[in-house]
Amino acid sequence: MTVQQSGRRERKKAATRQKIADTALRLFLERGYDAVGIREVAAEADVAVTTLFSHFASKEALVFEQDEDFEHRLTRAVTDRSPHEPLIPALRREVLALVRHCTADGAAPVWRMIEASPALRKYDEAVRLRHADALARAIAADPGLTRSETAARTLARFVIDAYSLSREAPDPEAALDEIFPMIEAAWEAARPPRRT
Amino acid sequence: MTVQQSGRRERKKAATRQKIADTALRLFLERGYDAVGIREVAAEADVAVTTLFSHFASKEALVFEQDEDFEHRLTRAVTDRSPHEPLIPALRREVLALVRHCTADGAAPVWRMIEASPALRKYDEAVRLRHADALARAIAADPGLTRSETAARTLARFVIDAYSLSREAPDPEAALDEIFPMIEAAWEAARPPRRT
DNA sequence: AACGTAGCACTAACGGATAGCTTTTCCTAA
DNA sequence: TTAGGAAAAGCTATCCGTTAGTGCTACGTT
Lengths: 196, 196
Fold this sequence. Notes:
Two copies of one chain form a homodimer. By secondary structure, chain A is an all-alpha fold. The first copy, chain A, has nine helices and no strands. Chain A has two domains: 8-56, Orthogonal Bundle (Arc Repressor Mutant, subunit A); 70-189, no CATH class. Chain A has helices at 8-31, 38-45, 49-55, 70-79, 87-103, 108-116, 118-141, 149-168, 172-189. The termini of chain A are far apart. At the A-B interface, helix 7, helix 8 and helix 9 of A face helix 8, helix 9 and helix 10 of B. The structure holds a DNA duplex.
C-alpha cells in the first residue's frame, strides 16, 4: 500500500503538470488553439507527449484545467444551504458568482478563445451536461422538496442553461435577472403531483 | 453559369451518398460504432475515403444523416402556425411528434447505439445547440410576441431540453406532460418588459 | 543498502481528417 | 457529334490527437 508521500515526488509531479498547463495556455493564447499542436506543447514544456497525456486526458482538458470545482460548488449550493432557505435563490446566487468569475477581466481572453474553437465549445457543452446531471441528483436528493425526478432533472437543465445563456449575453447580470424569474415560475408550476 | 442539370449526375451523387450512409449504418449496427473504421466503411461502400468525406463532414455525421429536417420542422412549428394559435402548444405538438419519431421501433437500435458512444452523444449535443439557436431566431422573429430576445433564447433552450430529457426518460410522453407546463409557466413569467 | 514503484521518455502505431493532383463521368454548346 | 468544361470520384501522402508497449531513472520505503 502506498502510505504517505513525504513530498518531493508529489511536488515534482505537480510542477510538471503546472508547467504543461502554463505552457499550453500561453501558446494557445499567443497563436490560437487550433494552430498549436500537442507535439509542440510537449516540446515547449520539455516533456514527452505521453507524459502530457498522463496528466491531461485530452487537448481540450488543458484549457479547462481550473474549473474542476465548478460542479462541486453548484451541488453544494443545494445541499449546504441553510435549513429553510428556498432552493431557487440559493441557486441564483451561486450561478451569479460563477458567471462573474467567468466574465472577470482575467478570464476573458480564455473564454474568447473557447468560443472561437468548435472543439472547445463542444467540450464545454459536454462538461455542462455532466454538471446538469450532478445538479439534478443533488436536487432530487433534497428531502425538503416534493417534486418528481423529472422536475428535478428539468430544473437542473434550466439552471445550467441560465449559466450558459447569461455568459454569452452582452449584459450577463441583466440576463440572469430575466431568466431566473422564468425558472422560478417553472419550478412553481411543478407542484407536488405524487411522490417519486 | 450552371443552368439546369438534367439529372443523371445528381442521381448518381445521391445514390453514392445513400450507399455510403446505408453501408455505414449497417456496419455500425452489426459490429458497433467504435469497432468500425472509416477506411472500412469506404471499402465496403466501394468508394475512396476522400469521397466519403466529401459527402459527410465527419464520421458522426454518417449516423445523423436523416435528422436534417429536424431543425426545419421546429422552426416551422413557430412560423407556420395558424395566425392566433398560441406558441407553446404548437411547440409541444412538434416536440411530441419528434420524440415519437425517435422512440419508434425502427429508430430504437440507432438511438441505443448513439447513447452507447461518447463521440456520438457529444455530436448530438452540438446538434441540439444549433437547433436551439435556430429556434431562438424563429421565436424572436415572430411579430406577435413581445418578449425580449433573452426570453426567446431561453425558451428555445428549454424546449430543446424538453426534447432531450423526454427522449431519455423511461416514459417519454409522461415526461413531456410534466415538462411543458413548466415551460408554459416560464414563458408566462417573461412578460413584456420593454420592447426589444 | 536494496527493493519496489511512480513518473517519465521513446518509438511506433492507429484512426479520423485533409491537401494536392489525376482520372472519370456527365452536361452543354458549338 | 464532338470538343470543352466542370463536377464527382480517386489516389497518395500527410497531419493530428491519442494510445500501447517498453524501458529507464529517481524517489520513497524497508
